[in-house]
């Protein structure tokens, strides 16, 4: 697929948020396709009605005042549209966007050079903002509040801080772990939007649009099946659509129908309720190896051979949301639903404790 713009995370960091898809055929590199499938305006963004309405209001008010809006923090599990919304913020404000991420900013100097080159009104997108170094965080919240950074010149006792005024700009921070952000940084964001898993109907709309952009002929019941089995996540839905399209091209006429959807999803280990290999591995480990829990996160991660962070930010939020596991201060517990899904009988007395308030940033319980 050829697009007028590339995913900024793969380029030099600058990006024209108003650019459009120019050609929906051709190559099929996942990153490029993902970028091309992003909605470009708030009005094209299905799902997340609350965040969309709130953000729409904040942006419209700023536009009418003719000044940059408050800084925006977007949190939620991967693939739900945080980057997409950051691009939309810039497009709605008709401002350029600069893209960087927490892991890329390890020194305050890295941040100072980004900040000092911002132009007035620019949007600075900081992905994985919870992974920035502490000195950079401190510099950031001064910059967010006072539009100023102190550039340190020299070393040791002779070092001096030279204040550098910055033009007003808007930070859009994205995080899968809002709980890890220090309070002073969190407090600098005037608007926080928490993205939740999507309703199936919204995923269907997303898939209909994606099929159209990819020129994939598809039946409504096939798209509904993919939507149902996409873990409430647009990125997963779009990826599954591409695998179903592959199946239809190799085994059929290229037309995506229900048979193609069901066959491809089963080939790629997506079960009838949409759980994937990692989800099932987590449930299997909890029920078969740890008797349903409680089990600590790191023990669970070792048991399934994954990074703790992957289990915590990718698998767990959806399993908790769907009611397969619950978190407790003593660890994770499998619910009767998990046992049932695996075709196992829960041990007597395996009643889940009361569900604690959801912490999909995953930061609260070890
Ligand atoms: N509301 C939406 N409508 C249509 N497509 C969407 C929507 N949200 C996300 N997508 C699609 O899903 C893909 C992933 O979205 P995005 O990169 O914005 O997620 P993210 O939350 O930033 O993920 P990560 O935390 O991994 O960076 C996008 O490329 C886009 O194609």
Quickly describe the structure.
With 366 residues, this protein is of the alpha/beta class. 43% of the residues lie in helices and 14% in strands.
CATH superfamily of the largest domain: P-loop containing nucleotide triphosphate hydrolases
What CATH architecture of the largest domain do you see? 3-Layer(aba) Sandwich
Rg over alpha carbons: 22 Å
For the largest beta-sheet, the strand count, sense and barrel status come to:
6 strands, mixed
CATH class of the largest domain: Alpha Beta
Number of helices: 14
How many structural domains in the coordinates? 3
Helix-strand pattern? EEEHHEHEHEHEEEHEHHHHHHHEEH
What is CATH's topology name of the largest domain? Rossmann fold
What is the helix fraction of residues, given as a range?
40-55%
Binding site for DNA: 327, 332
Subcellular location: Cytoplasm
Region (Head domain (RuvB-H)): 272-366
Biased composition (Pro residues): 345-355
Can you tell me about this structure?
The chain has three domains: 2-194, P-loop containing nucleotide triphosphate hydrolases (Rossmann fold, 3-Layer(aba) Sandwich); 200-267, Helicase, Ruva Protein, domain 3; 277-341, Arc Repressor Mutant, subunit A, CATH 1.10.10. The model is unreliable at 1-28 and 353-366 (pLDDT under 50). Helix 9 packs across helix 10 and helix 12 (297-304) crosses helix 13. The protein has 14 helices and twelve strands. The chain has helices spanning 30-37, 49-65, 82-93, 108-116, 134-146, 183-187, 200-213, 220-228, 234-251, 258-267, 277-289, 297-304, 308-321, 336-341; strands at residues 2-3, 14-15, 21-23, 72-75, 97-101, 123-127, 148-153, 160-165, 170-175, 191-194, 325-328, 331-334. By secondary structure, it is α/β, with parallel strands linked by helices. The structure holds adenosine-5'-triphosphate (ATP). Residues 34, 37-39, 45-47, 78-84, 127, 174, 176, 206, 234-235, 238 line the site of adenosine-5'-triphosphate (ATP). Residues 272-366 are annotated as: Head domain (RuvB-H). Residues 1-32, 340-366 are annotated as: Disordered.
């Amino acid at each position: 697929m050829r697009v007028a713009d590339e995913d900024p995370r793969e380029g030099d960091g600058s990006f024209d948020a108003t650019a459009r898809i120019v050609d929906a055929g051709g190559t099929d590199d996942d990153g490029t396709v993902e970028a091309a499938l992003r909605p470009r305006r708030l009005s094209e963004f299905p799902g997340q009605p609350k965040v969309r309405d709130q953000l729409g209001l904040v942006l419209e008010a700023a536009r009418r005042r003719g000044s940059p809006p408050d800084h925006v923090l977007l949190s939620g599990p991967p693939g739900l549209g945080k980057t997409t919304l950051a691009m939309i913020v810039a497009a709605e404000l008709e401002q350029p966007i600069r893209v960087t991420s927490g892991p890329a900013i390890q020194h305050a100097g890295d941040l100072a050079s980004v900040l000092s080159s911002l132009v007035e009104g620019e949007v600075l997108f900081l992905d994985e903002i919870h992974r920035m170094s502490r000195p950079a965080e401190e510099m950031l919240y001064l910059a967010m509040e006072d539009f100023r950074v102190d550039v340190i010149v020299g070393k040791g006792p002779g070092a001096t801080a030279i204040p550098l005024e910055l033009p007003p700009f808007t930070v859009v921070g994205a995080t899968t772990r809002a709980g890890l952000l220090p309070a002073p940084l969190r407090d600098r964001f005037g608007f926080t939007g928490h993205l939740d898993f999507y309703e199936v109907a919204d995923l269907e709309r997303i898939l209909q649009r994606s099929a159209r952009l990819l020129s994939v002929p598809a039946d409504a019941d096939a798209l509904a099946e993919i939507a149902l089995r996409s873990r409430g996540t647009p990125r997963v839905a779009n990826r599954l659509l591409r695998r179903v399209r592959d199946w239809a091209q190799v085994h059929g006429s290229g037309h995506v129908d229900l048979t193609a959807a069901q066959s491809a999803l089963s080939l790629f280990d997506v079960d009838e309720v949409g759980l994937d290999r990692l989800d099932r591995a987590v449930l299997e480990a909890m029920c078969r190896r740890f008797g349903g829990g409680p089990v600590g996160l790191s023990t669970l991660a070792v048991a399934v051979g994954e990074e703790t962070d992957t289990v915590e930010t990718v698998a767990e939020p959806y399993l908790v949301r769907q009611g397969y596991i619950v978190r407790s201060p003593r660890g994770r517990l499998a619910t009767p639903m998990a046992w049932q899904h695996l075709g196992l009988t829960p041990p007597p007395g395996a009643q889940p404790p009361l569900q604690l308030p959801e912490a999909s940033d995953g930061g609260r319980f070890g």
